[in-house]
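Lab channel / #folding
Pinned by the channel admin:
"Please post every new chain as: sequence first, then the structure tokens as a reply. Keep commentary short and put observations after the output so the thread stays searchable."

First post following the new format, from NK:
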Amino acid sequence: MTSNAKRPDLLIVGSVAFDSIETPFGGVERALGGSATFASIAASYFAAPRVVAVVGEDFGADSREILRARGVDLSGIQTIAGGETFHWKGRYHDNMKDRDTLETRLNVFAGFDLHVIRDGHVGNESGLIVPPNDFAALANALSTLLNDRNQCL
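Reply from TO:
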């Protein structure tokens, strides 16, 4: 962002992963991927994103620097000692729209628990964290957002 205006804080909770991709035109092994990664990089053009995620010891400084270079706050990323980061492997078809998942290794992501980390990483971010499969919490969060316009971007 080129202006000096304060960008809104945005908390992003999701996966930080490595993707291995095959296409008819080439491939890549262990590229930075995951929903929280993509969302935070996109959001960094308009907001100050903070990521809450879990990674393994294999998530090195080079991967972190890609996110830091976009102004992403990584203080909510938990590194699991001895663990491996979530890894997805897929092959795209000739039309580059269709793809097949060849392998999914959840690794440390399988133990990702919002109940454990949510209270420690919520500051002044816009929005709320909702535990997975907790429909009462989702209803409460939506009600809060609809009744408090200051929570919305």
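NK: The longest strand covers residues 48-56.
TO: also worth noting, Residues 4 and 46 are 12 Å apart (CA to CA).
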